[in-house]
Design a protein that fits this description.
The complex is a heterotrimer of chains A (304), B (407) and C (99). Chain A has a single domain, classed as Thiamin diphosphate (ThDP)-binding fold, Pyr/PP domains (Rossmann fold). In chain A, 35% of the residues lie in helices and 14% in strands. Chain A contains 11 helices and 9 strands. Chain A has an 8-stranded mixed sheet, sandwiched between helices. Chain B is α/β, with parallel strands linked by helices and 407 residues long. Helices cover 41% and strands 19% of the residues of chain B. In chain B, helix 3 runs parallel beside helix 5. Chain C has a domain of 65 residues: Alpha-Beta Plaits (2-Layer Sandwich). Chain C is 10% helix and 20% strand. In chain C, strands 2-5 form a two-stranded antiparallel sheet. Chain C is elongated and about 60 Å long. Classes of the chains: A alpha/beta (304), B alpha/beta (407), C alpha+beta (99). Chains A and B meet through strand 1, strand 3, helix 3 and helix 5 of A and helix 3, helix 5 and strand 9 of B.
Chain lengths: 304, 407, 99
């Protein structure tokens, strides 16, 4: 697969201005990259999420994709049916893409996504992970990281973030990747690659939310990059049973080259209460080590 | 046309095959299971040119069927009892989306305690969702209704999903001769798939984003209007079907010995068979009882019931379900149609959890009611629990103390 | 794009058919430029045409010219400031909106 070059992306409008997203929204960033990757052949399936709101109000929609909105817990299965429908009509060019939040993926939608993954339904599932229930007003999800303030974890979440990509790797699906809105070309490349593969594809897209994470909206891209540079959110792909660390994350495999974690945390109001708590910081460091231990382990099985 | 001996569930599967369904997505639950099994077999053996999505839950079963239907193909699912309750959210979503779809519901009790036998609590729980809800009396009607359901659902005046109910075990697992039409006959009777919209890159449409309150209100109005229109469509489809296949059932209700009846038994589902035997026996001893079997719970057969009741002394509504603290569901709809006026009415709750209700039960309850009406002039009893002897026997058995600590 | 399908024509006899169907359209949630408190101002002399601002803009309100110089669609720009933050040469300044 050819690397995506920024200057070669045709000059057209990929997003759709005048939507209901908050300023600095990572989810609309993701939608633009999705359009850059897939053009106009995609249909989105959207469960209850910020994306339901960003579309704005009937009879217009603020997102320039055809969308089937569906119930919270059934995005993957709705998409599975849709994909079968297009296939039976001979419309194989149409890509059915789920664009769901972390709540709709890691929590209430986990059963449906596991079902679709196990059946290897021909869909691309993108989890846009802003690490909490942002649409309902910042409540913790299982994808909220340890220590983070939310309105239901006012003294900080006491559990670590659930690792959904690993859960999907264990389903034996053909393609699993992580991506960050801070590295659009990497994400676009992954979407393009995934869309060429038949079967169940999963991309976990980190989407820092200025409102929920308590940072200035101008910092969305920077935050998404810092998550990678600190090693907190490693970018990788798992394809045909082989794990590869993606180029943006490669330098940060070496802990010494990583940006100090505190640089990432101190910009986010949600971590304010733990910045001076060495034990809490240690637990986040442990989480990072744990991520990389898993990746190294998986990588060590490549080719076996 | 060929006569085959089929269970109710296999009659469903035959009808789905004949209707050229393209996507079946389903999750097994007793007593629906053999529908899924048969359709899986048809699809694997290429008897049917369709895809089977073996989903991980009923919630996903209906969601996947909706996805397929929104992409432009005929889709089907089937469930029962807890499965139906589990997918309840999606039941609403499909109707609100106005996506034509057909689902078979094998009616069964709801737990706890676990009970896999017939009653109508599960399907009655769906009355308000905007689905057209049909109930069959026998396996032949099961097959006929499923084929008709696609035509009704895909009629542009309707564009609402349709549930076809069949009683658990009584129909689902009992074999009976069924006239199965030829493929070509059904092909020419059932038009190709029609639907109000497709979600695809070609149309660019978005289904279901936020609507202003006023627009939402009008969408609900539109659903209700479609439901009202569906009455005519259902009747027309019933007649058309009869002209082609030789079987018409009477539209929204089927009447048995109604013409000169003084009293009506009103019910839905397979136990109408026993009620009809009771009606015949009543004639032998001089009472004119008719049986009005409700074939469509939604849209509600309002006109038909008004017409019947205008010349009735009394109506016995038999519900195989109850809205706790109110009445049986058919009774409340009947009472709202007839009004609490001159006609005597009784709402009988019977046969819950699969307890047998025989012709003798129907006859004894009816005769007691008639006796009271003749004596008292007018009877209005919204809830009458018909507890046959084998149920009453259990009342006297010792029960567990509520709490050991109290004694 | 076609007209908004507020009511679709269907076969006779007509009923009000009103399904929850929408069409994508720019400005679906209004002229979002009004949300802005700070506005990005591009210094064309400093701009090196790297188009990172174009890439990261969540709203698609940075527009690329043929030579890859850029300008802002102020009608819809929400003023988040991501463009200014990602600009490697500080060619974009966030300026307070004057009402």
């Amino acid at each position: 697969m050819m690397a995506v070059r920024l200057k070669e992306l045709p000059r057209r409008r990929y997003g759709q201005p005048g939507n209901a997203a908050c300023p600095g929204c990572p989810e609309t960033m993701g939608l633009r990259y999705l359009k850059m990757a897939l053009g106009d052949d995609a249909v989105l399936v959207v469960p209850a999420s910020c994306i339901s709101v960003i579309q704005g109000i009937y009879p217009r929609s603020g997102i320039n994709f055809p969308i089937l909105n569906t119930v919270f817990a059934a995005a993957a299965s709705t998409a599975a049916g849709m994909s079968a429908g297009f296939r039976l009509r001979g419309m194989d060019n149409v890509k059915v893409v789920v664009y769901a939040g972390d709540g709709g993926t890691a929590d209430i939608g986990l059963q449906a996504i596991s079902g679709a993954a196990e059946r290897n339904d021909d869909i691309l599932y993108i989890c846009v992970d802003n690490e909490a229930y942002m649409n309902t007003g910042i409540q913790r999800s299982s994808a909220t990281p340890y220590g983070a303030w939310t309105t239901t974890t006012v003294t900080g979440k006491t559990e670590q973030k659930k690792n959904v990509p690993l859960i999907l790797i264990s389903h034996g699906v053909p393609y699993v990747a992580t991506a960050s809105v801070g590295y659009p070309l990497d994400f676009i490349e992954k979407v393009r690659k995934a869309s060429q593969i038949k079967g169940f594809k999963y991309i976990h897209l980190l989407a820092p939310c200025p409102i929920g994470w308590r940072f200035d909206p101008s910092l969305t891209a920077k935050m998404a990059q810092l998550a990678v540079k600190t090693g907190f959110f490693p970018l990788y792909e798992y394809y045909k049973g082989k794990l590869t660390i993606s180029p943006p994350s490669r330098p940060f495999r070496d802990p010494k080259r990583r940006t100090p974690l505190i640089e990432y945390l101190k910009l986010q109001g949600r971590y304010r209460h733990i910045l001076n708590d060495p034990n809490a910081l240690k637990r986040i460091e442990e989480y990072i080590d744990e991520q990389w231990r898993w990746l190294n382990l998986l990588e060590s099985t490549n080719g076996h | 046309m060929a006569v085959k001996v089929l269970t109710g569930n296999h009659a469903v599967a035959e009808a789905v095959r004949l209707s050229r369904v393209k996507v079946v997505s389903a999750y097994p639950i007793t007593p629906q299971t053999t529908i899924v099994e048969k359709l899986s077999e048809y699809i694997e053996k290429r008897v049917m040119d369709a895809e089977m999505i073996r989903v991980e839950s009923e919630h996903s079963a209906l969601a996947a069927a909706m996805g397929a239907a929104a992409a432009g193909v005929r889709a089907f699912t089937a469930t029962s009892s807890h499965g139906l309750l589990y997918m309840h959210e999606v039941v609403w979503w499909v109707a609100g989306a106005r996506i034509p779809l057909v689902m078979a519901v094998v009616t069964r009790a709801i737990g706890p305690p676990w009970n896999i036998h017939v009653d109508h609590q599960d399907i009655m729980d769906q009355r308000d969702t905007g689905w057209i809800i049909a109930m069959a009396e026998d396996n032949q009607e099961v097959l006929d209704l499923v084929i008709q359901a696609f035509r009704i659902s895909e009629d542009p005046r309707v564009y609402l999903p349709v549930m076809v109910g069949l009683d658990g075990f009584i129909l689902s697992h009992t074999s009976a001769p069924v006239d199965v039409p030829d493929d070509t006959e059904v092909d020419s009777w059932l038009p190709p798939r029609r639907q109000p919209y497709v979600i695809s890159p070609e149309t660019g449409l978005v289904m279901g984003n936020i609507a202003p309150d006023e627009e939402y209100f009008l969408m609900r109005y539109s659903m209700h209007k479609a439901m009202e229109k569906a009455r005519d469509v259902i009747k027309k489809v019933d007649i058309d079907y009869g002209e082609t296949f030789g079987r018409s059932y009477g539209g929204l209700i089927e009447c048995f010995m109604c013409n000169d009846a003084d009293y009506f038994i009103l019910l839905t589902g397979s136990w109408a068979g026993e009620a009809k035997i009771a009606a015949k026996k009543a004639r032998e001893i001089g009472y004119r009882i008719g049986v009005a079997r409700i074939r469509f719970i939604r849209p509600w057969p309002r006109e038909e019931l008004l017409e019947l009741s205008s010349r009735a002394k009394g109506v016995l509504v038999f519900d195989r379900s109850i809205s706790f603290g109110s009445t049986g569901q058919l009774f409340s709809d009947t009472a709202s149609t007839l009004g609490i006026g001159s006609t005597s009415m009784i709402g009988v709750i019977a046969g819950l959890g699969g307890v047998d209700v025989t012709a003798e039960d129907f006859l004894s309850v009816s005769l007691k009611f008639i006796e009271r009406v003749e004596e008292e002039g007018r009877v209005y009893e919204p809830v009458y629990w018909h507890l046959p002897e084998r149920v009453r026997d259990k009342i006297v058995k010792p029960v567990m103390p509520l709490s050991r600590g109290d004694s | 794009m076609a007209d908004y399908p507020t009511s679709l024509p269907i076969e006779e006899p007509r009923t009000l058919f009103k399904a929850p169907l929408s069409m994508p359209s720019p400005g679906a949630s209004g002229v979002t430029g009004f949300w802005r408190t700070m506005k990005p101002v591009i210094n064309e002399d400093k701009c090196i045409k790297c188009i990172l601002c174009w890439l990261y803009c969540p709203e698609d309100t940075i527009i690329r010219r043929d030579d890859d110089s850029v300008y802002v669609d102020y009608e819809y720009c929400k003023g988040c400031g991501i463009c200014a933050d990602v600009c490697p040469v500080n060619a974009i300044e966030m300026v307070r909106e004057v009402v």
